[in-house]
Specification:
It contains four helices and seven strands. It is an alpha+beta fold. The chain has one domain: Alpha-Beta Plaits, CATH 3.30.70. The strands form two sheets. Strands 1, 2, 3, 4 and 5 form a five-stranded antiparallel sheet that branches. A two-stranded antiparallel sheet has the order 6-7. The structure holds adenosine monophosphate. The site of adenosine monophosphate (AMP) has 10 residues, from strand 5 and strand 7.
């Protein structure tokens, strides 16, 4: 059923956290066009940024298989977030369910509302630790090197254009 090597981060720090994550995995599969191949263990982590006094997060990463395009997959993730009562109010504020598209095979997308690989994933241990549980290390390291090289190349050309 379509492409593999697709990874989504799940996080919750409001309400029944584990239940939000578990039901999100079922909801991903309910229309029959996405398969959840595996999911990491749940990691409990302190919130990064946002207002003080938030609860800790439960985080996980799932590997998916789907023929949906990255954009259609993002729309599906946002629908599921909304069903869980996700309100975008305070930046980095508490959330019932946060779903981020981390990687879509080796595709590089740089659009205003969709960046893949997810730009902040490499430095966030609450993403990288569960991701390493479900991802082949050699493939991930190769992609990290290619992403870094790609970013340096585009910064270089941007600088040259500005000169
Ligand atoms: P957040 O509030 O952290 O869930 O961020 C959601 C916003 O980030 C939405 O407006 C998305 O369009 C945008 N976005 C950009 N790239 C991604 C991505 N790879 N995964 C999820 N959201 C993304």
């Amino acid at each position: 059923m379509g492409n593999g090597h697709i990874y989504v981060a799940l996080g919750s720090n409001q309400g029944p956290r584990a239940e939000h994550l578990r039901s999100a995995l079922h909801e991903l599969e309910e229309r029959g066009d996405i398969r959840v191949l595996r999911c990491s263990s749940l990691h409990e982590t302190a919130p990064v940024g946002g207002p003080a006094g938030q609860r800790d997060y439960l985080n996980a990463v799932a590997e998916l298989q789907t023929a949906l395009s990255p954009r259609d997959l993002l729309a599906r993730l946002q629908q599921i977030e909304q069903r869980h009562g996700r309100r975008r109010t305070v930046r980095n504020g508490p959330r019932t369910l946060d779903l981020d598209l981390l990687l879509y095979d080796d595709e590089v997308i740089d659009e205003p509302d969709l960046t893949v690989p997810h730009p902040r994933m490499w430095t966030r241990s609450f993403v990288m630790e569960p991701l390493r549980e479900v991802c082949e290390p050699g493939w991930l390291d190769g992609l990290a090197r290619a992403t870094r090289a790609g970013r340096l190349r585009s910064e270089y050309f941007q600088l040259r254009q500005e000169q």
